[in-house]
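Two proteins follow. First one:
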Amino acid sequence: MLKDFSVQALFMGVLTAFVGFASSFAVVLHGLQAVGATEAQAASGLMALSISMGACAILLSAVTKLPVSIAWSTPGAALLASTGAAIEGGFNAAVGAFLICAVLIVIAGLFKPLGRAVAAIPAPLANAMLAGVLLGLCFAPVKAIGFNPLLGLPIVLTWIVVGAFRRLWAVPAALVAFVLVLTFGVEIPEGALASLGRSLVPTVEIVHPVFNLAGFVSIALPLFIVTMASQNIPGIAVLKVNHYDPMPGPLFAVTGFFSVLSAPFGGHAVNLAAITAAMCAGQDAHADPKRRYWAALISGAGYVVLGLLAGVVTAFVALAPPILIQAVAGLALVGAFSGSAMAAFQAPESREAAAITFLVTASGVSFGGISGAFWGLVAGGLMLALSRVVQAAKK
């Protein structure tokens, strides 16, 4: 393995870990706290996810000799944020749902019919549900400017200007702007900096899972669907585009296993990366495709290191008004929102069904204690089925 190491892969691996962590950790923190996690539990979840996905990337890349990049489920975290309030049973029930989702991912990898069933969900509806989930967070940058233009505008303008030249660096640059705004524009309470020092010690919070119907239907099922449809399946596609031929089932099962490990500590889901996968699997990682797996190995090590710093990251973020870190999270999801919205409404024959899925999901309204994401998929599916029956009757 050492003969395959290269400085090029080292650089790309470090860059992948930084971009993957910096561009979406805010979404993860916001999502976990939205379903009832305390600051300490959210820090523990962030740490567990980062270490799990780092270890998973190292294991899979070393065994397969493929550049298998791993990430936390950013769309899944956005789904948690869109629930609007903690479900019945609080964060314990959410952790129970995380475990169920993880087991479903393992089963999808080992039991081919379930994997095929997920792949059979109409892509326009899956994308419409994701777009509806992301919409609320994408409003946050505008709300941050409305909250305080002096605090919100520097973050948004930095994202716009840097993104115009280098899209990859837009969100990390916005994160730097957030740090500067927090440092120079927000009054930091006395003694807060001392608490940051204490936060350097990793936070570990074990959460006893609670299993109930509300958690299963409102979190576990939508989280499983959005993770498989928006992360795992595209992750395989990215590898194939770069001329790799992985076996999807075992990869899914291993990510599900690491999700099981992270769930009791507050982590929601670990999965194949989609965006950062292109960084490790592309030519920038190395001219020789057989040596690119080192980029994924190094990114995994980077995630482990960043995970150990999750406590101080969470404590620092907690010093700012929540809307500011939500703004960074929203900016990180603009690309995902635009991509999913375009894919949802591209096909004319499924446009109305996609619109219903999107609107019901985006409404954020829960029926019977079950979140809008699930009902959006159900409503859109019924509309699509009815449309197909009518079209068949006309022939």
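Second one, unrelated to the first:
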Amino acid sequence: MIVNRAFISEVLRTALAVTFVILCIFLVMRVMGFLGQAAEGLIPVSGVLSLVVLKMVSYLDVMLPLMFYIALIMVLNRWYSDQEMAVLASAGVGISHFLKPLGWLVLILGSLVAFFSFYLTPLSLANGYQLEKEYRESNEVSGVITGRFVEAKDGNGVYFVEDYNRATGNYENVFVYLASFEREGVVVAKTAFRMEDEKTQDQFLVLVNGSRYEGNPGSPDYRVVDFERYALRLEPRNQTKLYLPVRARPNNELRESTDPRLKSEWYWRVAKVFTLPVLAIFALALSFVDSRRGKSSGLMLAFLVYLTYTNLLAYSVALVKKGEAIDGTPIWLVHALYFVLASYCLYRRNFNLPMVPDINLWRRSQAS
């Protein structure tokens, strides 16, 4: 049917446009965050784009239902405002007619959300974790950051490492000044590598084929000592340790686990798929535009429904995470409650009834 094809086409085009705008905003925010880490030397500038893309993919399973909800409301609002829905109604096409094309859209987008939720999101988070861990480990030597002069933790020295060779695992062109030397001086070396003491877990920077300069140049006690290896103990910097996020865990581990934290993540992955049909029904019911009241009333109610729905879901997942409802009952109750509420709203809208029944009118009808 032409109406169904037009409806599906407009919803998809609008959803793509809304998703593009939201993704641009998201990219700007995330790029600024990762550039801050790059400025601190935690990650290389060349790795910012990869991390941003992975982070963006990890949020698409949450963003897609919202984008679809907004697109539906925008399309139906425009059809109501342009009197297209009135024309369709005069031809016997009511709001319930759109349940069939909407069902196809929900099926397709629901499969896409499930694909992101169960596969792409955990995969992107796991890859992002590995990248950040690799960058931090390769660009740091217990406080020495490549390409920058870095003051020692206790303030009694300065380190400089020009570059890091990933192929050999060595740091190149190393400069060290420490006030703890017996006499003022510096140590330079062509290469260096990191070493950890197995017993004490202390970190050492082992300089290879370098020289140590002691004293003031021109003074009688000035001397230069060449060495093959020279080990310096380095104080670790205060830095946040990276842990594999729960959202990156595989599905089998989450489903079979009895840990409330892991179980809550499994229920959350499933819940994201079920939000799509509920929001779609709400969009059909709440997109009506009254020319006397304007568009704002319906839009405000639609976004209020979305906020309460998603926040109640998040609260239910938090209950599971705390171990208070390990079977996930509150999550399914929230879905059921909002599905019934959405069906009720659609029923009232289909028969042009007010969302809130008029009690006085009911009493008068009973009295008569």
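SUMMARY FIELD: The two ends are 45 Å apart (CA to CA). The chain has a mean pLDDT of 81.
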